[in-house]
Amino acid sequence: MKKLLTLVLAVALVLTMSCAAFAEGYNGDLKIWVAEAAVDFTVEQVEAFKAANPEYADMNVTVEPVGEGDAASKVITDVEAAADIFGFAQDQLARMVAAGALIDVEPENAAAVAAENDAGSVAAVTLGDTMYAYPMTSDNGYFLYYDKSVVTDPSSLEQVLADCEAAGKSFYMEINSGWYQTAFFFGAGCTLTYDVDDEGNINACNADYASENGLKALKSMITLAKSPAFVNGSSVSNATNAAAIVDGTWDAVAAQEMFGENYAAAKLPTVDGYQLSGFGGFKMLGIKPQTDDAKLAACDALAAYLTSEEVQLARYEALGWGPSNLNAQKSEAVQADIALSALAEQLAFTIPQGQYPGDYWALATGLGDRIIGKEFDDADDDTLMGVLNEFQETCISYAG
User: What are the CA-CA distances from residue 399 to residues 179, 194, 353 (Å)?
Assistant: First the structure.
């Protein structure tokens, strides 16, 4: 009985200390990694957070420039030395979780994230039934920029091509890219994803390109490449005589300059009766595992603040990054952004890009090059299905 009483008192003491830690806030060190362009903005927002939350006023926060593309590798290499909060891209989530480099989002915050952000970004930060990061943006994907004095109906690829051909103008899309190419295959109903094991290794491929849907997608690309208006490419800066181009928000300024008063943008069009799809991209904030409960509470509170409606909107105004927060997306400023509005519409038809082996990208380039090179222009269905079978089996061979 005495031992039991001692144990109860010990547990009560631990709980009391833990609650006190949460109540008292945190005044130690905390490190954040964000893209270089976002460092100054993040420093300002951290100070605003501290001013609004006196319990964290004495917290020492360091903000360092580490891009979303590099953060995952740095964290996994040395979790202990990594930042406590870091920005990263959605295709690194499975790898980070497998490496034990992310702690799941506190349940109350997870419920708020799910309710306040768009479905694509919520899916991007979730693995299985667990949310592992805070959505920060929904702004990485591709859609259609076009000249509205030439293109009469941006919702139909057939019409876009017809308008471009009639005007002697070009339509640009990079079909020898594994990123853009999925617009056709995913849109037609195909799947190509990879599973990652607990050690971060790709161990399975889920692919059905060798199917009627895959055949439909391949034929659509072959037909596109036959058009005299078609040019393979995805950079406005490298486009000439263009009336339409599939590109992303990073080229919005260049697209406005190219099309002038006829500048317009829309979701990707339909082709052969289906909606073009593809990958969607998202940035997020993750938190590494912590041994100090007070520090973990500070990380959760700060990450939630830095991805809140208010800060996402401020980030858009300062950096042009598209928000994932639903209310921020409805703001007048974001709604008036032609490129972001088109992307937001397109993201409803995409899937978050997961982890893909490096060889996949080269394989997809090879398939696109063969289409552009007219190798399949006169091929029958059996021949094309053979091409798809070879592509699919090669993708599967990259797993395990």
Answer: 19, 8, 17
Q: Using CA atoms, how far apart are residues 138 and 248, in angstroms rounded to an integer?
A: 12
Query: Cα separation of 92 and 322, whole Å?
Result: 20
Q: Are strands 351-352 and 270-271 parallel, antiparallel or unpaired?
A: unpaired
Same domain, 114 and 158: no
**75 shares its domain with 187:** no
Residue where one domain finishes, among candidates 308, 327, 347: 347
User: Helix or strand or coil: residue 124?
Assistant: helix
CA-to-CA distance for 210 and 393, rounded, in angstroms?
9
Residue 104 to residue 102: CA distance in whole angstroms? 6
Q: What is the pLDDT of residues 54-86, one digit of tens each?
A: 999 999 999 999 998 889 889 999 999 999 999
User: 323: which 2 tokens?
Assistant: 């928000």
In a domain, 2, yes or no: no
Q: Are residues 291 and 243 in the same domain?
A: no
Regarding whether 370 and 228 lie in a shared domain, the answer is yes
- Total of domains in the chain: 2
Host domain of residue 81: 24-140+281-347
- Give the residue from 306, 307, 308, 287 showing the smallest Cα distance to 297: 287
- Note whether 132 and 87 are same-domain residues: yes
Q: Please check whether residues 157 and 245 belong to one and the same domain.
A: yes
Long-range pairs for 35-40: beta carbons < 8 A, 24 or more residues apart: 35/65, 35/66, 35/67, 35/68, 35/87, 36/65, 36/67, 37/319, 38/87, 38/315, 38/319, 38/321, 39/63, 39/64, 39/65
CATH code for the domain of 204: 3.40.190.10
Please tell me whether residues 252 and 392 are part of one structural domain: yes
Residue 244 one-letter amino acid: A
pTM for the model stands at 0.84
- Pairing outcome for strands 60-65 and 29-34: parallel
Using one digit for the tens of pLDDT, what is the confidence trace for 326-346? Answer: 999 999 999 999 999 999 899
How far apart CA 285 and CA 341 sit, in angstroms, is: 23
Q: Any idea what the Cα angle at residue 316 is, between residues 315 and 317, rounded to 5°?
A: 90
Q: Are residue 60 and residue 117 in the same domain, yes or no?
A: yes
| CA angle (359, 362, 368) in 5-degree steps | 140
Q: Provide the terminal-to-terminal Cα distance of the chain, rounded to the nearest Å.
A: 55
Rounded CA-CA distance 208/186 in Å is 10
Residue 110 lies in a domain: yes
